[in-house]
Design brief:
The protein is of the alpha/beta class and 308 residues long. The protein folds into 2 domains: 141 residues, 3-Layer(aba) Sandwich (Rossmann fold); 147 residues, 3-Layer(aba) Sandwich (Rossmann fold). The strands form 2 sheets. It has a 5-stranded parallel β-sheet with strand order 7-6-5-8-9, sandwiched between helices. Strands 2-1-3-4 form a 4-stranded parallel β-sheet, with helices on both faces. α1 packs across α11 and α5 crosses α11. The chain binds phosphoric acid mono(formamide)ester. Phosphoric acid mono(formamide)ester (CP) binds next to α2.
Length: 308
């Protein structure tokens, strides 16, 4: 029987190409399940999962919770802002207290890069990273690649550009790892101040001219400026950023070919993407969200099979 090479999902960096294909094949099955009239299977009936979120989330939190419920797992939700973390309890104490209630898996979002890796070394449960600071967001990258595969048939050989705040984006790093593993050609595009100096060592090319990048690509993954992580100003003004790196319908219509538009959300309409692009038939933004449930079902199912 095929199984993942890892016990935790801490980052795409720790997966291999076979892991990704196994997750996609498993997600294909679960996508069929969630389109049935009865959208639930008993696969994780004996598993309890804690979703612990130390940072805000709409898509990831709800998508994990729905995935867990569709798999018949027992689910508890923890929000740091309403917890005893506010009284000074440490991360390890918090999680060990949750685990003593017979919890098997932890899905965690945390503002600190490496928080999931740290936790996996100190507690006895399978850990799923739901985003750790500016480090990785592995399930987002998996659902992004899965959505490209669904739309274009394959990821291998496709030209993908990631546009925007690459420096502060966990989505960018996880996408780069995932896309390169699958044989895609990857460029990043944005102001030089928002592109890390090490990026080319990951096998990625830099293109600072948005129109050139869009004419090269099959898919443009538009990222928002991570304002919550900006310590200084990286560009003169939002208006100038939008003029140089925002995608609007006029720009899309001026390209040599029709490209696919993606965005992990949340969208800042009118900044990195206009509404007539976000809501156009070229956009697969809501397909990404839909696919997130099947991908997270696949990840939880495959990790749970290693603790049974
Ligand atoms: N894409 C994503 O991580 O969105 P949320 O922050 O709403 O979970």
């Amino acid at each position: 029987m095929s199984e993942l090479s890892v016990k935790h999902l801490l980052g795409i960096k720790y997966l291999n190409e076979k892991d990704i294909q196994l997750i996609f094949e498993t997600a294909d099955h679960f996508k069929e399940v969630i389109n049935r009239s009865i959208k639930k299977v008993p696969s994780l009936r004996d598993i309890t999962i804690a979703n612990i979120f130390f940072e805000n989330s709409t898509r990831t939190k709800l998508s994990f919770e729905l995935a867990e419920k569709r798999l018949s797992a027992d689910v508890i939700n923890f929000s740091a802002s309403q917890s005893s973390v506010k009284k000074g309890e440490t991360l390890i104490d918090t999680v060990n207290n949750i685990l003593s209630m017979k919890v098997d898996m932890v899905v965690m979002r945390h503002p600190n890069p490496g928080a999931g890796i740290f936790l996996s070394k100190h507690v006895n449960a399978a850990i799923v990273n739901a985003g750790d600071g500016a480090h990785e967001h592995p399930t987002q990258a998996l659902l992004d690649s899965y959505s490209i595969r669904e739309k274009l048939g394959d990821v291998a050989g496709k030209n993908i550009v990631i546009v925007g705040d690459i420096l502060h984006s966990r989505v960018a790093l996880s996408n780069i790892f995932a896309l390169k593993l699958q044989g895609a050609n990857v460029k990043v595009c944005g102001p030089k101040t928002l592109i890390p100096k090490y990026i080319e060592s990951l096998g990625v090319e830099v293109e600072t001219n948005l129109k050139k990048a869009l004419n090269w690509c099959d898919v443009a993954n538009m990222l928002r400026i991570q304002n919550e992580r900006l310590d200084i100003s990286y560009f003169p003004s939002t208006r100038e950023y939008t003029q140089q790196y925002g995608v609007n319908k006029k720009l899309l219509n001026s390209l040599d070919k029709e490209i696919v538009i993606m965005h992990p959300g949340p969208i800042n309409r009118g900044v990195e993407i206009t509404s007539d692009v976000a809501d156009s038939k070229q956009s697969i933004i809501l397909n990404q969200v839909e696919n997130g449930v099947a991908i997270r079902m696949a990840v939880l199912y495959l990790l749970a099979s290693k603790i049974k």
